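From the methods appendix. Each design record in this collection lists the tokenized structure first, followed by the designed amino acid sequence. Records were kept in a plain field format so they could be parsed without special tools. The example shown here is representative of the layout used throughout.

RECORD:
FOLD TOKENS (729 positions):
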């Protein structure tokens, strides 16, 4: 009994203690870098002192294998720690932004999702290539931040990023030309791509050094197109071959980035407990980018060593001795297990990789893997590595057997000499393959076929989606204030205030704070059918706000009073309203001074039942001598919009106000609905409420003008994509 209690005490001590020592994890992934193109593997013409520092301050793994010989599947293996063939990610995905099947399945747990379970903060940078559909976005796959691009490659110079968004793409490789994404937003980056990715990584470390973090930095360098900036090219004037010179410059840019990252870790004092892993996703395609796999046979795309054996170094000063060199076969699938096990995280799925640390520090002396497998479903091709032996089968041969310890270049097929070994590995592969899945999507090699099957492949109907791009202001205007609602969680308290409780018009809802929240790049105002106790209830009160014992609905209303107001300008609100019966969504502005209606009200949008018909309204109101509102109102039956476009209610629309000292013009999707001459909007006391600053209010009311919601199903939501206020210079 005593022993058990002691065990528990120790366990909880270690658990508590380990909380404090969770290592930071940084994966630095190069793209199509040759095995021989780093100093730690013997490269002579491209100095890589910073990349080499990862190896000399930690371990060089000479027999490290990617789980596939091209980008996409290899990355799917790294980010899940599992053979990608287990979940059908056996091909390089096509850029298919409308296709939720084209990418990493939701059944898989990403390393960011796993580490999040132990409170890691994470960022993905650079090339994603694990799906371009919104459901595959890095922020949907456990990352807190993203800075990069979704496609399988990219142009390096900002002036070549001519497309604003995926909606402007017409063919597969147009993905290389998009502006970069910062989280969900397209931004204007000005630096050479590799430098920009390094800079953002350093920024992230700077901002997150106090808590455990995970960085997945996927440089697309030195993948084609071969493009390097003068800063790096001038270091390699002596290299005659232009391709190799540019390639060297691109690798040198990565090396500078690695240097900046290591420097920042040191400066922040977190070097000791940060795990830095440097590797390439596959072997070098020597002809394409002038990379060099050294003695290894073959290159990117095939299962000879040149295609799958990759440069690999890992440092973690707390656990790995400097200048460790490790020769046993390891896999890039091991990164996941190494990170999660040392972060005290239990993965959701069974991993194929293992924690490398006990092997690298000598605690365990047996090889980490009994056997490793590769499969190219389409070629078809197969490979197995066990001990010193390697089996390789490509379409045109009957299978080959090599001793890769003595014959690194895979020159001498020994299957005749060692047929027992040959048959054993061959059988092992077939047994393994039985457990794998067929590919779940078409790949890059099926581009033509995919286009035939999906003629509207790149047709993104952006009317249904939140915007991702903050455009330049209209000519003569500048952006005064905006909220794009692009973070997840609660609304920005610097900008907005929630209304609480019963507020206006005998409406049915109790306004609550939690019914307004940010999700998937929009502000959600959510109407719920739920009983909320009226904390101001007084049985005998004459006030409607007090005499109701409870509310039967809840919803949300937010405004900018005392936080933001403006006088004259253009307001644009992009929103998707819910036209269900009983709902009353609105976009208003209200004057900062005086009581309603003397303060003035402008309704860019009101939607409710008018004479029993669903109606869109565009109004302004001010005050008569009895302090009752005078309305200037335009009422348009909803049917006018839905007759033209039956999907009108499923789409986002832009409500706009153009307000000057002369007029207020209200537009819906650029169609003028109402024009109000503000010479005629004086209150009876002579005060003009439309010459004073106004604040903004967004709300979703229930009942009253909205009609009876009792037959409507709940919850319902009113989505606001953005609000932007512009003023003339
Ligand atoms: Ca690659």
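DESIGN:
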């Amino acid at each position: 009994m005593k022993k058990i209690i002691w065990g528990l005490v120790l366990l909880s001590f270690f658990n508590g203690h380990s909380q404090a020592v969770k290592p930071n994890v940084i994966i630095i992934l190069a793209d199509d870098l040759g095995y021989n193109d780093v100093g730690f593997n013997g490269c002579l013409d491209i100095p890589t002192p910073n990349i080499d520092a990862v190896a000399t301050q930690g371990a060089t793994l000479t027999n490290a294998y990617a789980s596939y010989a091209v980008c996409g599947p290899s990355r799917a293996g790294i980010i899940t720690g599992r053979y990608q063939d287990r979940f059908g990610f056996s091909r390089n995905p096509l850029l298919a932004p409308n296709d939720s099947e084209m990418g990493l399945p939701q059944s898989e747990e990403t390393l960011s999702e796993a580490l999040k379970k132990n409170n890691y903060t994470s960022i993905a940078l650079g090339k994603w290539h694990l799906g371009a559909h919104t459901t595959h976005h890095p922020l949907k796959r456990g990352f807190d931040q993203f800075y990069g691009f979704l496609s399988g490659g990219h142009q390096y110079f900002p002036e070549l990023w001519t497309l604003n968004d995926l909606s402007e793409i017409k063919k597969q490789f147009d993905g290389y030309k998009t502006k970069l994404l910062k989280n969900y937003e397209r931004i204007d980056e000005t630096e050479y791509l590799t430098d920009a990715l390094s800079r953002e990584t350093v920024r992230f470390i700077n901002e997150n050094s106090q808590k455990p973090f995970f960085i997945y930095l996927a440089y697309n360098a030195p993948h084609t197109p071969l493009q390097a900036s003068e800063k790096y090219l001038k270091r390699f004037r002596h290299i005659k071959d232009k391709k190799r010179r540019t390639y060297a410059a691109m690798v040198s840019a990565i090396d500078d980035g690695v240097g900046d990252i290591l420097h920042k870790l040191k400066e922040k004092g977190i070097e000791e407990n940060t795990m830095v892993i440097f590797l390439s996703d596959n072997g070098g395609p020597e002809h394409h980018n002038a990379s060099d796999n050294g003695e290894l046979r073959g290159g990117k795309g095939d299962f000879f060593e040149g295609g799958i054996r990759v440069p690999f170094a890992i440092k973690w000063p707390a656990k790995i001795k400097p200048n460790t060199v490790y020769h046993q076969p390891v896999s890039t699938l091991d990164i996941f297990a190494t990170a999660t096990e040392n972060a005290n995280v239990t993965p959701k799925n069974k991993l194929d990789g293992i924690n490398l640390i006990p092997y690298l520090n000598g605690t365990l002396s047996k090889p980490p893997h009994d056997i490793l497998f590769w499969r190219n479903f389409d070629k078809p091709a197969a490979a197995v590595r066990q001990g010193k032996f390697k089996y390789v089968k490509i379409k045109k041969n009957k299978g080959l057997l090599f001793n890769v310890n003595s014959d690194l270049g895979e020159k001498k097929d020994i299957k005749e000499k060692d047929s027992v070994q040959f048959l054993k590995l061959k059988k092992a592969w077939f047994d393994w393959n039985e457990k794998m899945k067929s590919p779940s999507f078409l790949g890059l090699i099926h581009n033509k076929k995919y286009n035939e099957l999906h003629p509207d492949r790149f047709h993104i109907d952006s009317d249904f989606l939140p915007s991702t791009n903050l455009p330049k202001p209209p000519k003569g205007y500048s952006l005064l204030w905006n909220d794009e609602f692009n973070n997840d969680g609660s609304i920005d308290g610097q900008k907005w205030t929630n209304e609480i409780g019963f507020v206006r018009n005998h409406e049915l809802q109790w306004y609550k704070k939690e019914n307004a929240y940010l999700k998937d790049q929009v502000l959600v105002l959510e109407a719920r059918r739920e009983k909320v106790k009226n904390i101001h209830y007084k049985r005998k009160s004459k006030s409607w706000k007090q005499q109701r014992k409870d509310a039967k609905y809840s919803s949300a209303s937010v405004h900018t009073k005392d936080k933001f107001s403006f006088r004259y300008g253009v307001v644009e609100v992009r929103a998707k309203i819910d036209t269900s019966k009983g709902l009353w969504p609105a976009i208003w502005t209200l004057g900062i001074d005086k009581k309603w209606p003397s303060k003035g009200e402008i309704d860019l949008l009101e939607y409710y039942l008018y004479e029993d018909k669903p109606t869109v309204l565009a109004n302004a109101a001010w005050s008569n001598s009895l302090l009752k509102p005078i309305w200037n109102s335009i009422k348009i039956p909803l049917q006018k919009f839905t007759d033209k476009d039956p999907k009108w209610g499923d789409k986002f629309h832009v409500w706009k106000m153009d307000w000057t000292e002369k007029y207020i013009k209200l537009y819906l999707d650029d169609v003028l609905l109402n024009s109000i001459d503000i010479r005629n909007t004086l209150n009876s006391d002579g005060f003009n409420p439309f010459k004073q600053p106004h604040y903004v209010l967004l709300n979703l009311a229930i009942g009253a003008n909205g009609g009876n919601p009792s037959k409507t199903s709940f919850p319902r939501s009113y989505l606001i994509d953005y609000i932007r206020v512009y003023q003339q210079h």
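APPENDIX NOTE: The first strand starts at residue 24 and ends at 30.
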